[in-house]
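--- STAGE predict ---
source: upstream dedup step, 1 unique chain passed
mode: sequence only
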Amino acid sequence: MSTRAESLLRRMVEIPSPSGGEAELAAFLAGELPGWGFETHIDEVGNVIAGRGPASGPTIMMIGHMDTVPSQLEVRQEGTVLHGRGTVDAKGPLATMICAAAAAEVGPVQLVVAGVVEEETFGRGAAHLLEGHRPDAAFVGEPNGWSGVGIGYKGRVVARYDVCRPAVHTASPEEKATEAAVAFWNKVVGYCDAHAAGSRAFDRPVPTLVDMGGTIEEARMTVACRTPPGFDLEEFERFLADAAGDGVLTIDDRTPPVRVDTRGAAVRALCSGIRAQGARPTLKLKTGTADLNIVEPRWKVPMAVYGPGDSSLDHTDREHIDLVEYATAVDVLRYALEKLAGELVQAETAAAAGAR
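--- STAGE serialize ---
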C-alpha cells in the first residue's frame, strides 16, 4: 500500500462527517483530488463529484458515502490496523474507489467518483445523482470484505405511530395510549412473522422498534421494517393503516429492496479482480439498506457493491480496518475497472458498427 493512499484514508477519517455535517470532508476532497488527476466540484446538495477521462465516452460511476453515524472515535493506528469512525462505513470503500480510479488505465472511458451525503439517513445525496447522471455501469461502496461482492440489499419502510387516549386512573380497565402503542407494535411483529418467505435472514421482513415513549394519554413510536425482494409493500402499508386504528400513521421512508443480476458485467469484473488476487469471490446478500437501493431501480445498468472492511463493525465502537486489506481492495477494484471499461468500449464499438 502506498503511503499516499494510507494518508488519504487517515485524513478522511480524521475529519468528522456525521450525516448533515459532511461539508468539511467534501471541501477537503474537492481540494485534494485534482492532485490525483480528477476534475472536481461540489454539487447542489453537497456531494463531491470527481471525474477523469473524456465525457464523450462510456461512463463508470463509483458511489461512496461521506457521512457516518454521529458518534466519534479516537483515530489511531496499531500496526496495519487503522481505528476510527468511518474506516469501514464507509470512508474505507470511498477511499478505495478514489485510489483505484486514479490508478486505472481505462482509455476512452470516463471514471466518476461521487462522495455522497446523508446515506445514513434517507439517501439524499444518492437521490440527487439521479437528476444529472446516467452512467453505463456503476459500483457502490460498502464494506463486504475485499473478496466479497454485494449483490442484494433489503428495502426499508419507516413509520411513525402517534396515539391518544383519555386520561384515566392507572387502575382503570380502559386502554391507555401506551398500551395501544404496544398493541400496534405486536401486530407489526406478527405480520412480519407471518410473511417470512424463507429461512435466510435476507428473505424475511425484520421489524425494529427504533424509539418509543409516552404516557397514559399520549404515546408515540417509530418502527422500521427491512423488507426483502418480493415483499408486497402496498399490502404492508394497508396493514399498517388498519393496525393504526384511530392513531396517526406517518410513513417517513419507502426504500425498495434490490438484487442485481449476478451475470452482469459489474459483478463479473469484480469477481475477476478478486480471482486475480488469488481468492474465490463470495456473493453477498445484505440485510441492511444502501445507496444501491436508490440508484439501481432508476439506472438499470450493470452494478455491484464493493469495499474492504468487516460490516459487522458498522456503527460500533470497535470500527477499524486493516490497511493490508484496503490495499488489496484497491488492486481488485482497479482490475475490475479496467476489465469493465474494456467491455464497455467493445460494446460501444460493436453498436456503432451495427448502426452503419
